[in-house]
Design goal:
The complex is a heterodimer of chains A (about 80) and B (about 550). Chain A has about 80 residues and is mostly helical. Chain A is built from four helices and no strands. The two termini of chain B are about 30 Å apart. The chains are: A mainly alpha (about 80), B mainly alpha (about 550).
Chain lengths: ~80, ~550
């Protein structure tokens, strides 16, 4: 989780990622941030995030992102 | 009064418009009645039969394309499902180390099936919609090199709504491929999802997960849904018949013979066309939402008050939302998610920073989206230019954002202050009007000609009652349009502030509610542009 928050802060600082649950719905993370985020997450966590996973539900909070990362890591 | 014109929804068909009397006093009530009286289990079949009858009435034998689409969607879904089930079976019996390799083989097979499906569906749309355009352009090239021959220009009949239901078909197959939804084994449910009559002419473009189950697991008609649905249909009817159709003769006169007018009048024509398009399309969407609501179906909204947008990018998140979402889900993110693009983003971000780094991959994807968006609207260079115009505006807007923010900081200007927000709203509307000028023009060169005239000859001289008469409009028309636009603006402003006027009205007593209802009906009957002197106007997006 710490690493994820670090990446998020690097991409878009000054956001309380520990508590915010509407990162997409409140337009805090825009599409350009998502493009960066996906590239960074794939590199850091050794996963592949297909386009289909790019839905608000997976990116609205750091917790949801972590759940998606763990799920993708567990896949074959 | 020309009574016959009341029964025509448009020049092409008696049913194309949801505001034609044929639809409103015959087709819709009969469908609702049949839906209400049949046993619960049969209601979904009434919806399906009504949808197919509706499509046959507007497209006649071209309904065959709809049947082919449904059958193809069903079979491709089953095919993908079969591969996925076999994959699961094989993987469950395979050692963990070998699973990745085996899975890749199955994924490759699925990808090929998806590719074939997309080629077939998009190919059919391309053939029907664009083969004439491609042939024309090839002939132009051939004549440039003095080739002694020409290729024949095909004139194919295209069923109404194919641009919309093709996108739904592709989204269904793609979602099955990604495992987001299970392939539907019930071809009748798929048929209803693809052909539901309120949405087949102009959308909204729905995903299977949004509407298929709602349509299949039908509800009784409830009083609240009926009244709310009828209110929404009436509101849409007011937008379409009182504003859009009343503006039609004037817009037509200006764009048909622009050489007769000064730039100022052409600009006025472009503004009126933008208003007409918005009122026509969003009014029709109100009718679609209203009809669906009566059946207890909640469809995704297609408009969120786009003219309150502060940037072109925001405008397109609020205008024809379901098309924008489709392009985002099935083009934008898939392009930025390719391995090459991800690597490009990673390396560019290190060199160019957080803003400009992802902008390269984002720009490539945005180009693909806007090229397709332009082409989707029609087979013409002006439509492609329309797409590219918005691509440049949105990309440009993104590029200057950091510089603009720095500038605001330096001059201590609050970008959220009212005056600056208003300036941004007006600027966005102007940029949209220029885009619509090209969109409405008869060709790209004509569009540039009109734009040039606005820039070089911005004059309103000659704008008098004589000219208005020539434009088939009079000062009273402007007053009626103005009053109705103010009403729409007030409703929109309330919605923008999160106030639901419909809920407020619903809380009022029965007398007030019915007074408002009757007032709206009377307003439409008295001020609607139909009958003598008006040619019924087809819903504008039905042609795209």
């Amino acid at each position: 989780m710490e690493k994820l928050i670090e990446i998020l802060e690097d991409i878009k600082p000054d956001v309380d990622y520990a508590t915010c649950t509407s990162l997409i719905d409140s337009h805090i993370l825009e599409s350009l941030d998502i493009i960066s985020l996906i590239a960074e997450l794939e590199e850091e966590f050794d996963i592949t995030i297909p386009a289909i996973e790019i839905i608000p539900d997976n990116f609205n909070s750091a917790e949801r992102m972590m759940k998606m990362i763990e799920r993708l890591q567990e896949e074959y | 009064m020309d009574i016959a014109s009341l029964f025509l929804g448009g020049s092409g068909s008696v049913m194309t418009s949801f505001f034609s009397l044929t639809f409103l006093i015959a087709f819709l009530p009969v469908s609702l009645l049949a839906y209400a009286v049949v046993p619960h289990k049969a209601k979904k079949f009434v919806l399906l039969i009504a949808s197919l009858v509706f499509f046959w009435l507007v497209s006649s034998v071209l309904i065959v394309y709809l049947f082919l689409t449904i059958l193809s969607v069903f079979l491709f879904g089953k095919w993908l499902d079969k591969i996925q089930r076999t994959m699961k079976e094989v993987l469950s019996k395979t050692e963990k180390e070998k699973r990745k390799e085996i899975k890749q083989g199955f994924v490759h097979r699925q990808r090929m099936v998806l590719l074939l499906a997309v080629i077939l569906h998009v190919g059919l749309l391309l053939t029907l919609k664009y083969s004439g355009f491609f042939a024309d352009n090839i002939n132009s090239l051939l004549s440039l090199v003095n080739a002694p021959f020409e290729i024949p220009v095909p004139k194919l009949m295209m069923p109404i709504g194919i641009s919309f239901f093709t996108l739904q078909a592709v989204s269904y197959i793609t979602d099955v491929y990604h495992g987001l939804i299970k392939a539907d084994g019930n071809i009748l449910r798929i048929s209803l999802f693809i052909s539901f009559f309120p949405q087949i002419v102009e959308g909204p473009i729905c995903r299977y997960s949004q509407t298929a189950d709602q349509l299949w697991n039908v509800k009784q008609i409830e009083y609240k849904n009926l009244t709310f649905g009828l209110q929404r249909i009436l509101y849409g009817m007011m937008k379409k018949i009182v504003i859009a159709d009343r503006l039609d003769p004037m817009v037509k006169a200006i764009f048909d013979e622009p050489n007769n007018y000064h730039g100022g009048i052409i600009f006025l024509g472009a503004v009126c066309y933008t208003i007409q398009l918005y009122m026509d399309f969003s009014g029709s969407m109100d009718a679609v939402m209203g009809i669906a609501e009566i059946f207890g179906v909640k469809m995704p909204e297609n408009f969120e008050r786009p003219f309150f947008s502060k940037s072109v990018s925001e405008f397109w998140k609020r205008w024809h939302i379901t098309l924008g979402t489709w392009f985002k889900d099935y083009i934008f993110y898939p392009v930025t998610s390719t391995k090459k693009m991800k690597n490009l983003t990673s390396s560019a971000r290190k060199k160019l920073g957080n803003h400009y780094g992802p902008l390269i991959a984002g720009g490539v994807a945005l180009f693909c989206v806007w090229f397709c968006n332009g082409l989707w609207h029609g087979a013409g260079w002006n439509y492609i230019f329309f797409g590219m115009y918005h691509f440049v505006l949105i990309l440009g807007g993104n590029m200057i954002t950091p510089l603009a923010n720095r500038f605001f900081k330096a001059v201590k200007l609050d970008p959220e202050c009212f005056v600056y927000r208003l300036f941004r709203i007006i600027r966005t509307a102007l940029l949209v009007v220029i885009g619509e000028l090209f969109f409405r023009s008869t060709g790209l060169m004509s569009g540039f000609g009109l734009f040039g005239r606005i820039v070089s000859d911005f004059s309103f001289s000659g704008l008098n009652s004589e000219l208005l008469k020539k434009l088939s409009i009079d000062p009273q028309d402007f007053i009626i349009i103005g009053i109705t636009l103010v009403a729409v603006f007030i409703v929109s402003l309330m919605n923008e502030k999160g106030i639901s006027l419909r809920d407020k009205i619903a809380k009022r007593g029965i007398v007030t509610r019915w007074c408002i209802f009757y007032a709206l009906i009377l307003f439409i009957i008295i001020f609607g542009a139909y009958g003598f002197g008006y040619i019924p106007v087809d819903p504008m997006y039905a042609n795209f």
